[in-house]
Structure formats: structure tokens, C-alpha cells
Design brief:
There is one protein chain. The protein is α/β, with parallel strands linked by helices. It has a single domain, classed as NAD(P)-binding Rossmann-like Domain (Rossmann fold), CATH 3.40.50. Helix content is 43%, strand content 15%. It has 10 helices and 9 strands. The strands form 2 sheets. Strands 3-2-1-4-5-6-9 form a 7-stranded parallel sheet, with helices on both faces. Strand 2, helix 3 and strand 3 form a beta-alpha-beta unit. Belongs to the short-chain dehydrogenases/reductases (SDR) family. It catalyses: a (3R)-hydroxyacyl-[ACP] + NADP(+) = a 3-oxoacyl-[ACP] + NADPH + H(+). GO terms for molecular function: 3-oxoacyl-[acyl-carrier-protein] reductase (NADPH) activity. It comes from Baudoinia panamericana (strain UAMH 10762).
Length: 291
Amino acid sequence: MASKRVEQIAAHLNYPKGMLAGQVAIVTGSGQGIGAETARLFANEGAKVVISDIDAAKAKKVADEINAAGGQAAAIPGDMLDDNYINELVKKTAEFGNGKIHIIVNNAGYTWDGVIHRTTDKQWDTILALHNTAPFKLIRAAAPYFRVKDGEPRNIVNISSTSGLHGNAGQANYALAKAGVVGLTKTIAKEWGPQFGVRANTIAFGFILTRLTAAKEEGAFVTTPDGEKVALGIPGAQKAARESGAAAFKDIPLGRAGTATEAASSILAVVSPLFSYVSGQTISVTGGRNM
């Protein structure tokens, strides 16, 4: 029996149609950054990918690029804080995937920082709703496509952060939310693993080059459902002090920030057959930071 399994694994190491051939994936927040790179990598490995993003133009652009490159993608834009959209996302993805969904990557999110004594209820509630409640509702809505016994792989990846593992000054809301997805992931692994073989893992990113780690002065922002603009990024002076001189990235053994492609590659690795016996884990992708 063991030797047969070894033969099966060896056979899987040759993927003429890609490691994710025949699979259907939802990647939330995939109109840009890590999400967009994840979608591209999944498509390169043969998956049909749904681009979910609140920005319809960006979602369409990523999907069009994937399709032009010979992949298969569909843009289904909308707001993850809208229950109707979540149900629509699952329904349209299943239609796109001929009745199947294999992968969910809960990547959508942003930071809305504030020290504890100045954080408003709105800041608190919005970040927890986006990073905890929305992923839960998406997973719950997609349950009929994961609680199946068709012999095909099913994977859920919830994106966390070192803020969720270690805390971070000015990010009480984000830290709690990112810690919360770890518990959600482990629960999915324990509930849906035994009967249905669903794998669920968390990836906690460190300092990755995205709009959340760019200089705030660059002007990136998101708009809340009621129209408030939330500035994204790190104050320029603080960012410059961290990244310049001999002390640059001194707390990261690799001595640099990670790229969005490197971050996305870790997501691909986790959902691939190469990680077929890994479930319920929190994998830190930090360049060695926080060892």
C-alpha cells in the first residue's frame, strides 16, 4: 500500500496540464497585488479562476489578461460585505466551473489603523466584518461544493498576517481579525477534513510589497460602503527610516521585503498536490522574520 502511494505521488510530479488542472478557484481581492498574482499563477497551473474584487474595472483587467495569455478566468466583482454578493459569487462561480468549486482563497482586505484609545467602533466593526465575517459567510455559502465525495481535491486558504500572530501597535482591529482566521481555518480542517478530505490552511504574511506597505503619501485608499475614504500605507517618514541605511530590514533575516509574486507562490504551493498532507496549519511567509 505504501509503495503504491509513493508511485502515485511520483506520478503527480509530472503535470503536463498544470498542478491545478481541472480545478475551479475563487480568489477574493484579486484585482491587484497578491490576489492578482495568485490568480495568474493558478491560471498558469490550469485552474479556472474567478476574479473577485470590489473594483470591477480592475477585476475585468486581470481576467482579460489571464484569458489573453491562454488561461481561463471570469471577473465577478462585488463587495464582500454584501451578503447578496457572496451568494451571487458562489452561484456564478459554480456556473463557470460546470457545477464545481475546488479552491477558495480569502485574500480580500485592508488595514484601518488606530491606537486602541482612538479606534472608533466603525474602524473596529469594518475590519472584523471584512476579515472574519465575510470569509466565514463565503465558506458557508460554498459548503455544498466542498462537502462532497467526488475524489477531487478541495482547498481553503485564509490569509493572515504577522500582526495576527504577534500583534502590532496601532492595529488592534487588524491583529484580532487576522488572529481570528487562524481559528476559523483549524475548525474547517477538523470539520471538513475527516469525511470530505478538505484541506484548510492559513498563510501569515510578513512585510510584502503591496499598497498596504507603500508610502501613505502615494495616495492609495479604499472607500467604505457608506462612502468614507480610508488611506492605505505607511507614513513616508516611517517607511524611509525602516528601509534606508545599514539597518534596513534588520529584523528580516533575508534582508528585504517580499514581493507579491513570492507571496502568491506560497499560496499556490499550499493548494498544490505537493502539500497534499498539510492541513490546519499556519504558515509564516516572512523572510525569516519572527522566528
